[in-house]
Amino acid sequence: MALVVQKYGGSSVSDAHSIKRVAKRIAEARRAGNDVVVVVSAMGDTTDELLDLAAQITPLPPQRELDILLTAGERISMSLLAMAINNLGVKAKSFTGQQAGLITDAVHGRARIVDVVPSRIRETVSKGQVAIVAGFQGVTTDTNDVTTLGRGGSDTTAVALAAGLGADVCEIYTDVDGVFTADPRIVPSARKIDRVTYEEMLELAASGAKVLALRSVEYARRYGVPVHVRSSFGNATGTLVVGTYGDRIDPNAPAGEEEAAMEAPIISGVAHDRSEAKITVVGVPDVPGMAARIFEVVAGAGANIDMIVQNVSVAATGLTDISFTLPQGDSPATMGALTAVQGELGFASLQLDDQIGKISLVGAGMKSHPGVSARLFGALRDAGINIEMISTSEIRISVVTRADSLDDAVRAVHTAFDLDSAEGEAVVYAGTGR
């Protein structure tokens, strides 16, 4: 008997019919002899609808009250799913994040899990019942306030519960058949990846791939939780997120072939992100400590920095321009914080560009193969796409280009690295990728 944690996204439980279909899958897993814990997201676009409703009341709702409002979406879907499972003759009980023992810090809107105490979940499972847990939420230890984990929080909830319960696998059910070499909405010829390492999945998620939330992959890697990304609309084998690059090498390969495979670069996929903005600090005095001071101000504004480039300033000699990318939602506060210290730091001006897009090529063994970079840049050149910023890691190359060129860039790079599938177009069952 296996202990399985299953997570279902909003597109998988978007209406009553979908909830009944998911309930049938869960009941089948329980009847097959598995212990089953389920984490569920809010139905469809419920979270966005609740945010819109709050905005109609006030432009600046208190974060504590907003968290209480937003957790209602998952509570609705958890109770309806429990009803549907019970209706199939399988016992099921629903739990809020607080009841499930998800303990978080006190940062409303993007809280982090600090502990998992799933005693009530263990008790329910020990009785042969299915435990349904509301994703995306937890509770603080000091004030007992409800918190939310931010976008993708249900993925993180599922992996955290899997780790806390010692589950055999955490199955993330979505509206595509697994992790693909590119977003199948942009590249219909994208092919499904059978296995991917935690490190590669981290880079894909951080670079814009929406199929798994970044924090859930970080949690899975830290605690060694096996993650299986699958579609809730079919029974196809999905993508297994495994521990290391070596896990992707066939142990039964003939002598010599395995070593060759270990040395060869394996391109996992092409990710893209159009949710970032670029801020350029123009005319910064080129003296020691100035960059540190600028990014202290940026950190104080709560911004998450991605790419950074420093160049000789176009304003005058002895000055430098510093450009960096960040989430668009962080840009107003960051611009305000930098403007407030312009007199102190002595830079000339600030420029905000929210019409950028980022494309990232991810794969193991890339650092030792300079031909990968040349091939990437050549593909973008041939497609007539200009590069504005470049960033690299051992398994990723990212470039910033214009937002209106991003889709063409993704398709050009995907084809250049022979990632197109010969088996027909990928299927997106519900249209959201979550």
Structure keywords:
single chain; 434 residues; alpha/beta; Carbamate kinase; eight-stranded mixed sheet; four-stranded mixed sheet; 20 strands
Question: Your description of this structure?
Answer:
The structure is a single chain. The chain is of the alpha/beta class. The chain has a domain of 173 residues: Acetylglutamate kinase-like (Carbamate kinase), CATH 3.40.1160. 35% of the residues lie in helices and 26% in strands. The chain contains 14 helices and 20 strands. Strand 19 and strand 20 form a beta hairpin. The longest helix has 25 residues. The chain is globular. It starts with a strand and ends in an 18-residue tail after the last helix. About 4% of the residues have low confidence.
The CATH class of the domain at 3-175, by name, is Alpha Beta
- How much of the sequence lies in strands comes to 25-35%
Outline, from the CA principal axes? globular
Whole-number radius of gyration?
A: 23 Å
Helical run tally:
14
Task: Classify the helix fraction into a percent range.
Answer: 25-40%
What are the segments in which pLDDT stays under 50 over at least 5 consecutive residues?
Answer: 248-265
Instruction: Tell me the total number of β-strands.
Output: 20
In CATH terms, what is the architecture of the domain at 3-175?
3-Layer(aba) Sandwich
Helix and strand content put the structural class at: alpha/beta
